[in-house]
Specification:
about 600 residues; about 0% strand; mainly alpha; 20 helices; globular; lipid-linked peptidoglycan transporter activity
Length: about 600
């Protein structure tokens, strides 16, 4: 079925609330200051030349909205699942030793630099401007998008060339000495992906502004499938027949890694991002957009974008500094030169990254869905200065997200060992590496809820178009997080440093939660926290009971071989059976404790069954 292509009517923003200024010409540039050649176009708010005809009444959008929501939800779920599958396959192919840690470190680089150059600006500024230009410009915002795409391609292309040339310096800043050469080689292949990350983000904004939501959600799945294929090829070509060292390990020293291995992984990963961008082309044509190179950048609202983006960039930059710090500390903790030959496996950045991705998958499926549903309502309440309504939406969102996330956190904690073994013990990812990932996953379960609640509260500020407050209270949060990283590295045994890094994250999330709660209460009044805390106490109690039962079941589970088909079968059986037991006990305990969300869930299920 074709996606809707009609322009949104007045006041309708298909991609969420518009956070830009509301004046007739907010750019500070006269409409005719720089007329481009050819047909005249608007600047996103005030059309140039003859007024644009009044927009036709928007068609009924109920079915389109429902269909688009379902399409995006399904695409997001499949994308996250395949993205996690990509992580598992790559981990099985290269392990969590020197090769795995070097690949993971290099993979962070283009994404981090993209966030610093464009990511925060795009998320909070450029996308709303696309929507307004599409609604207000006579050409549907085509010229605006063409200018911005041309400028972004030039900026990102120059950034990609510059940072690729600086790959050795970046590697020395974030990697341990034994990784320098490998991380640098990987970076030469992977840093050019910076250009394509940025183009994908902007082209997705063009599609979203034209109410074509499906492609940006589904196309990344192709990227994941490409990398999964690369991982499978690597396993068949290199891992399966690899000769272990004296300790029985593979890919843990530089002499076990060849140029062909680095080239396959590096080029394969970048190829996935390139394909992701190319696959948007037919959808852009279907949406009626053609990219023509335009250099009339004076018609862009550059001054306004800079002013609006300043606080967002501060927020993004601070977070990227924390990312660089955690990668550096995780690499230093697992540095063989520091540990000596007698040390066994010590978790590094690969283990940290795998546990973090599991936490983010749970947060993305549950909390991001709640945020997406609540954001338009919170924005409408904030626009009308209906503070009690905004507080009520926030409270309801926290209770719903907590009700769904608490059992997942309990499973991460109680069943971390079988889950870690089931998901990660494949190929080059040895049992001790999978068990270490499970230990970190247990800490991720502890910090999952504070992280998700703090994110919900941050979006309450975004609903008020306030990025300054978020940036300011994020600074002490980041300082506490980095300080926690340094303390973990200084005082914990090497094998527990990565667990300590997650604990430092948890402390910073809790501080963020408390700071944002205090600031929100001053601004919008009581947040209904008594009711929220009552619900949290009840759901947490239910989760503790359910987790205790599941953990007891794991202790009584029959011992199976560490390796082989029976071991894997036992890991799957333990994780699934005990996970279902945990869920059953959790919902039963919620019924006994009269958790409000349980009654709502029951009513919804009964209503569906009656149809």
């Amino acid at each position: 079925m074709a996606e809707p292509s009609a322009r949104p009517g007045p006041g309708h923003s298909p991609s969420g609330p518009v956070r830009g200024p509301q004046g007739n010409n907010p750019y500070g540039t006269p409409p005719n200051a720089y007329p481009p050649p050819g047909p005249q176009t608007g600047n996103g708010y005030a059309p140039i030349g003859t007024p644009a005809p009044a927009p036709a009444p928007a068609p009924p959008q109920g079915k389109n909205v429902v269909r688009s929501s379902l399409l995006m939800g399904a695409g997001s779920l499949v994308s996250r699942v395949t993205g996690f599958g990509r992580t598992v396959v790559i981990s099985a192919a290269i392990g969590a030793g020197l090769l795995g840690n070097s690949y993971t470190t290099a993979q962070y680089f283009p994404q981090m630099i993209y966030e610093l150059v464009l990511g925060g600006v795009f998320a909070s500024i450029i996308l709303p401007l696309f929507v307004k230009a599409h609604k207000n410009d006579p050409d549907g915002g085509d010229a605006f998008a063409q200018r911005l795409l041309t400028l972004a391609a030039l900026v990102l292309g120059a950034a990609a060339v510059l940072v690729t040339a600086c790959a050795p310096l970046i590697a020395r800043f974030m990697a341990s000495p034994v990784q320098y050469d490998l991380v640098t080689e990987f970076s030469y292949y992977m840093l050019p992906a910076l250009l394509f990350y940025g183009l994908f983000a902007i082209l997705s904004g063009v599609l979203n502004s034209r109410e074509h939501f499906g492609a940006p959600m589904w196309v990344p799945i192709l990227n994941n499938l490409v990398v999964i294929t690369v991982g499978a090829l690597f396993y068949v070509i290199y891992t399966r027949d690899a000769v272990p060292d004296a300790s029985g390990d593979i890919f843990v020293s530089a002499d076990q890694v060849t140029n062909g291995m680095v080239m396959l992984l590096g080029l394969g990963t970048t190829a996935g991002v390139v394909l992701q961008v190319l696959c948007l082309a037919p959808f852009l044509r279907k949406a009626g957009f053609r990219w023509r190179v335009r250099f009339d950048f004076k018609a862009l609202p550059l001054r306004t974008i800079r002013q609006m983006a300043a606080w967002t960039l501060l927020f993004v930059a601070a977070n990227q500094i924390a990312v660089m710090a955690v990668i550096k500390v995780a690499n230093a903790a697992s540095d063989p030169d520091r540990l000596g030959d007698a040390a066994g496996f010590v978790p590094g950045v690969t283990v940290y990254n795998n546990a973090y991705l599991m936490m983010m998958m749970a947060h993305g499926i549950v909390a991001v869905s709640v945020i997406t549903a609540l954001m338009p309502r919170m924005t409408r309440a904030a626009d009308g200065r209906h503070w009690p309504e905004l507080a009520d939406h926030l409270s309801n969102g926290i209770r719903l997200a907590s009700f769904l996330l608490v059992p997942i956190a309990a499973a991460f904690i109680a069943l971390h060992e079988p889950i870690g073994l089931m998901i990660f013990q494949w190929g080059a990812y040895a049992p001790e590496e999978a068990l270490a990932t499970g230990q970190v996953l247990a800490m991720a379960g502890i910090v999952l809820l504070p992280f998700s609640i703090s994110q919900l509260q941050i979006y309450a500020f975004y609903a008020q178009t306030d990025t300054r407050t978020v940036a300011m209270f994020n600074l002490p949060v980041i300082a506490i997080r980095i300080g926690g990283y340094l303390l973990a590295f200084a005082f914990l045994p090497p094998e527990w440093v990565v667990v300590g890094l997650f604990a430092a994250n948890g402390v910073s999330y809790l501080v963020s939660l408390l700071l944002s709660m205090s600031l929100l209460r001053r601004r919008i009044g009581l947040l209904g926290m008594r009711k929220t805390m009552n619900g949290l106490v009840r759901t947490t109690t239910a989760a503790v009971i359910a987790g205790g039962v599941a953990y007891g079941g794991w202790l009584l589970w029959p011992d199976l071989p560490v390796d082989g088909g029976m071991a894997k079968l036992g890991q799957f059986a333990a994780s699934i059976v005990l996970g279902l037991v945990l869920l059953g006990v959790y919902f039963a305990a919620c019924l006994v404790l009269r958790v409000t969300e349980t009654a709502s869930l029951q009513a919804t299920v009964r209503a569906k069954l009656r149809r």
